[in-house]
Amino acid sequence: MKKLIMTVVALMGATALFAQTDVVATFQQATANAKAGDYATAISQFEAVVEAGWDIDEPDANQLKAIQGSKKFIVTCYNKMGVAAVNAKEYEAAIEHFTNAANCAELYEDAAAMNKNKSMIGQVYQVQGADAFNSGDYTTSIEVFSKGYAADPRNTEMALNLAESYFRSDMYQEGMKICTKIAGMNADKFADAIAEAQSKMDMYTNNEVAKLQMANDYDGIIAMAAELEDAALAAKITMQAYYGKKDFGKMVEYSAVALEAQTTDEGRSDINYLLGVAYNEMGQFDAAIAAMQKVTAGNNVANAAAVIEVLAAQKK
């Protein structure tokens, strides 16, 4: 028992000695190994410096520099290992290294380095997913792009590819969710991506609605709209579906909700145009004119003016 106690004491003393005397030397050795490209050895040594730093109550300037530098260089070494793996097309290894870099950066409270490495994780997944996407393997591209999107949701090119993979797999709602998130990003920074996302939303929504219209399934259109996260688009689709059902009373009843959901003059104009159409079909011509007069933007301005002219002439 006495010998064991002495051994433990000896180990504690060795640790303290390392912490106090070898931190700087080990840091210098690690730096040399990193410069030589031996990143695995360097990481192990940098980690030893960081670990030893916990045992130093008041590190001097050189020790503090070594400890702080080690935290930075651990992240750098993992990053360089990731880059080397990408160049060798060893993508799984690259993802592992970049993930380690991001996790260490987060642990050491370096937000910029963490975001940089998460972005690189996304880029690796983007390369992997592109191979599957280009070969028409959308099941695989969805799996890969989803991982990349989770790592870096600001990679809009990959996000758009993920949405397209969903759409081509007849997973309309999933694709719409991704596009809706893109459309809600900062317009100053992501204008092109937002425009492309909105274009996809319009095209695939029109396709989905057309399929259900051909089946005369207007209730299906309403149910589809109810699942959309874009309230303005959902309201417009719902109004159009009620028109397809010739349920003009329901259009009038729903119009207040539909108008409240709109965020643009064009959106409000489209709803007012449909409301005017509903009133016209119900023979409530004054109400129809009042609704049509509120159509001031978008593609229905000329149509609304023509309807107003016809209805006004009928009243004379």
Model description:
The protein is mainly alpha-helical and 316 residues long. The chain has a domain at 216-316: Tetratricopeptide repeat domain (Serine Threonine Protein Phosphatase 5, Tetratricopeptide repeat, Alpha Horseshoe). It contains 15 helices and no strands. Mean pLDDT is 91; it is low at 1-18.
Using brief descriptors, characterize the structure shown.
mainly alpha; disordered N terminus; 15 helices; 316 residues; Serine Threonine Protein Phosphatase 5, Tetratricopeptide repeat
Kindly report the CATH topology of the domain at 216-316. Answer: Serine Threonine Protein Phosphatase 5, Tetratricopeptide repeat
Helix content: over 70%
Major sheet characteristics: none
The CATH class of the domain at 216-316, by name, is Mainly Alpha
* Structural class estimated from helices and strands: mainly alpha
Helix and strand run: HHHHHHHHHHHHHHH
Put simply, the count of helices is 15
Determine the CATH superfamily of the domain at 216-316. Answer: Tetratricopeptide repeat domain
Average predicted local confidence, pLDDT = 91
Strand percentage lies at under 5%
How many extended strands? 0
**Do you know the CATH architecture of the domain at 216-316?**
Alpha Horseshoe
Distance between the termini: 114 Å
Global morphology: elongated
Note poorly predicted spans: 1-18
